[in-house]
Each structure stands twice: as C-alpha cells, then as structure tokens.
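hiii so my PI (J.) wants the whole complex modelled not just the main chain, which honestly fair. so below is everything: two entries, each one labled with what it is. i double checked the lines twice but i was tired so who knows lol
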Amino acid sequence: MTRHTRILMSCIYWAFALYLLLPLALMMLMGFKDARFIGFPITSWTLDWYIGVFADRQVMFTFGYSTLIAILSTAIALVVGTWIAVTLTGRAFFGRAVILGLTLLPAVIPGVISAIAFRIYARVLGIEPGMWAIIWSHAVHNVPFVVLVVMARLSTLPRSQAEAARDLGADPLVVFFRITMPYLTPAMIGAGVFCMLLSFDDFVRSYFLGGYDPTLPVLIFAKLRSGMSPEVNAISTVVLVLTAVLGIWAERSMRRIKKQANR
Amino acid sequence: MPDLPPQSPADPSGPPTFWGRLTAWSLYRALTGLVFASPRRQFWMLILFPVIWVLVAHLGPILQMMQVSFLSSYPPSAGKEVVLTTANYSRFFGDSIFLVPFWRTMVFSVVLTLTTLVLMYPVAYFLARHVRRDNQLLFLMLLLIPFWVGEIVRIYAVMIILGNNGALNLLLRWLGLIERPIPFMYTNFSLSVGIVYLTALYMLMPLYSALEKIPANYSEAAADLGAGPWTRFFRVTLPLSLEGVGAGCTLVFLIATGMYATPVLLGGPNTTLFSQTIAGFFHVAGDQWPTGAAFSTIMLVTALVVAGAFNRIIALLSGRVAK
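here's the output for the full assembly
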C-alpha cells in the first residue's frame, strides 16, 4: 500500500470514530443546557438536570430494577452456557451438531421476532409479563454468547491437568470446580459483563415482556416519545458513563487474569 | 515395597480443606457414587439438562409461535371456537398495507448491510494492518465504548444530531449552505443513519478478526511476484477475508431486520418497517395474535433464507479461491 492510501485510511478511521463518538459527546453536553428545549446553540449552563436524575425516585427505582434483571439473567446464562459448553467440548456423540445448532439459535433470530415468540410462549405457559419473563428471555438470548466464549477458552485447556486430578482420585465434580472452572474464569467474567450490558441495554424484549414497571431503556423510550428534554440527556449520560466504566474494567481485568494464567 | 497406607484424596496432610470435607461427606459420596457410576451414566447426567434447556427455552417459543400462527383465535376466549386455518397467512399476501413494509424492510436491510460493509472494510483494514499491535486495542476500545451503550441511548444521540435544531443543521447554517433547517428526521435518511450507527460494530469486529489473521508476508510475496496494490487486494486480501465478510453481513442483516425501537423513533409515516407492522398486532386489544405470529413466521423464514443464501454464496466464492 502506498503512503496516500494509508493516510486516506487513517482519515476514514478517524471520521468513523468521530461519527460514533460525536453524537454521544453532544448528547452529554446537552444535559448541561439550562432550558427545556433541546437544540443548539447552548447559551446558559446548569447542573440541575443531573441533580434531578439522582433525586427522581422513579428513575432510581428503574435503575435498580434493570440492574437486578441484568444480574439475575446473567447468572442464569452463565450457569447454563458453561454447562452446555462443557457438555459439547471434547466429545463426539450422535446429535452434537443439532444441539450446538439449537444452542446458537437465539443469536440468529431477529430481535422483534424473538420478543414476540417469548410473549406468546409466556402466555401459553402462564408466566405473567414482568420481571421473571424479562429475566428468562434475556438469559435465553445471552446463552449463545456464553457458550461461544467458554467453548473457545475450553478448547485451550490442557487435558493433562484434568487427567492428573482424576488419577489422584478426584471425581468429575471436583475436577470441574477445582481445575476447569478456575481456568474458565477470565472467559466467564468477559462473557458475564457482556451479558450484563446486553441485558441492561435491551429494549425490545423488555418492552414486549414487561409488566407495569419499565426497565431503564423502556423508561427512556417512553420519555422520548413524549418529547425530548435535557432530563433524558442526563439519564442517558449517567447510563453511558456507568456502562463505559464497567466495560473498560472488564476488559482490563480479563487481560490481567489471562496474563497471570499464561505465566 | 512395604505396604504404605493408601493415599486418600479426602484425607490430605494438613488441616482439612473445604473440598476434603465435602468429598468425605457420606451424603456427597452416596450421590456422586450414584451419578458418576459409569462414564455412560456421567454422560447422560451431563447432557440431560442442555437437551431439555435448548428444547424448552430455545426451540419452544419459535415452535409455539408457528403453532399459534395457524389458529383462528388466540389467546383463548370464552365462546369462540378455535380451528386450524391458513387465513393468517393469506391475509399477508392479499394486502399492500402489509406487503409494502415487508419489502421495504428486506430492501432496506440488504442495502444497509452492503453500505455498512463498504464503510467498515477500510476501517477494519486500517486497524488490522496499519496500527501497531500494541495500539490496536486502544484504537478498538475507542470504537467499542459507544457500542456498549444501549440502543435507545444511541438512537437519542442520533436524534440530537439530525433534529431541526440539531448539530448538523446548525453546522450547515453556520457554513451558509442553507437558509432554513433541512428536515432530516423521520425520513429514510435518518433511519439509515441510525441503523448504520447501531450495527457498524457488528460488521467491524468479524472483518477485523478475519483481516488480522492474514499474514502480512502473503501480500509481500505477491508484491515480489509483481502484483500491484489493487491486484494484491483483490486476489489475496479480499478472498482471505471472505469469512469475516460473511459473518459480519449475516449479523448486520439479521439485526437490521429485527429492529423495532429504531424505526419507531427515527422513522416517519413513510418508512414503516415490518417489525412495526408485527408489533401493531400485539398492541391493539382483540384477536390479532395469530396474525402477528403468522407475519413473524414469514419474516423469520425470509430473513434466515436470505442470510443462509448469502452464506452459501460466500462459501462457494471462498471454495473457488481455495482451489
């Protein structure tokens, strides 16, 4: 590649980074505007909108509700996903491909269709729309990601370690908890944080399966439909900062654990 | 050798550990003895739960939706007889109110998938080839942070840019290019910008990981053999990255067809997508669920067929390269 194409490509990269980051930066900025009306230019500034977010009982409750859903659905997805990954790794048996295919199915179903299928299924099973219906649909949606990440990590686990433990008399359960699981920890942290972010940010499933209490994205959606206001900017900014911090923390801790494991 | 006392894992030297005590516990021993009696039984105990889970939680909802799509009425209500019917499907083919959003969704998704591919390929190439290894993660993180933020927040950010008093109109007015604001919002344009904004990273990541795997010396070898930059790209780099192209396009296409909040917030009356049509059947009170289920089934099958066909083409193309 010539020098010109290299410069051109770096320009494309920075233009794209700007395209991704600039809207969010402007959104954060707009939360400081001292007026009800969204739009440029910003003439006077205030912190009231941000203070308002933390004073708003409904927003704070919704925030906790979404967090609870994210934690519980991630816990379910991690247990189920790890179980499936362990079952499917290192074994050849009749129907393995079918089970793998069915495991990955939720990842290829368009969002709105999966939400509606769950809505109908919950009705058939007699599950009321609400927290547990949302948790269940988020867990199912996240299982394929956990399975893929954990399987990738499992494929690099040296067989000799498990064999040595078994020779020393450990039963399969002990082997799993003392050999396999510590090795999988970085993968499970990574997959877990990713699942939590997916669940926390999910709109379409929470919207169709939600009861009376909205999750945070559903609340922002409802506020947006009734009109744009700097209040929404402030809520969104708080969400953005928290997800970014969580994401960066997960990325860093995953790499640290991997480095220690490789030593 | 004189007979040494057998080494028991439940009885290690030193104070008993948690695992030592657990494995020495009689109830635990009885249970594990039962479960782990033979490799065959171990296997069955291990596989039973995954099989039940994927059948009940993954396949169940889809099959149930398909079943409901053939019913004359659902949810069941008193005094209404439920019969099997294909009327829900024929309703779709009979009315342009349904056909137009359907075709719009498919064309939109295909066009935007290809647009995203063309936009993201140079970015992925730049990241994989021109950024130093140590810096690649930093450059990627810069793009990943907005990606972690949810769909709704990002849609809102796009609304702020494109609104009548938004940043783009302000910039254009300041440059003196326009007199009065251009109404970007609630059009095909705002919807496209939003969908590309939301799906770009799903294209970038597979492309990046495919391009990163190609050894740099392939292209150097081609250069030594006299291939120019374009030949090198089209004969070496592009064919080797086809796997990433396939994965990225599939992901973006399936996500784009399944979007609901984006067309609601960024689209207008002339940009109704099929997901909005489907959702409508579940909003109104009344006996519309089977129709919604039938329409969802049509969309699911079409989306999967398109994605499957696309992957087949990619596989054929890369197969030809391999020969």
